[in-house]
Amino acid sequence: xxxxIFKFWIINxxxxxxxxxxxxxxLIETNSTDGNLFETxxxxxxxxxxxxxxxxxxxxMFLCSLTFFLNLIQNIRDNYFLSLLTFLGIxxxxxxxxxxxxxxxxxxxxxxxxxxxxxxxxxxLFLAAIEFLIFRKKIKSHDLNE
Length: 146
Fold this sequence. Notes:
The protein has 146 residues and is mainly α. 84% of the residues lie in helices and 0% in strands. α1 packs antiparallel against α5 (114-145).
């Protein structure tokens, strides 16, 4: 059982790294303004803010992936809902919070730095949900073999 859970954690970690690299590429591709000194300064601040969000994204997703190891406890692994929470619980709460903040920012300021962050977090949730379904199928087949 430890091998199965560790395998799924490694897959999740590779998904996190891949999304992080793509997130950084998207940030690099954003247009910078060519203007006066003040616009250049604001552009540098924008890049630094996006880089800090990228690091927060990486750390947050890594910490969320550590909850996979709670499936080593048999009571959690056997309960579908608790197992679902280990895969999607904490990331879902964080994404809902980010979506609410992004909507407030868009309504208030007509734009948001969090938009790209939220999009990549939703992509992570989708991939983690697929991974959870595969995990449950693997657990069910593993239990039948024993």
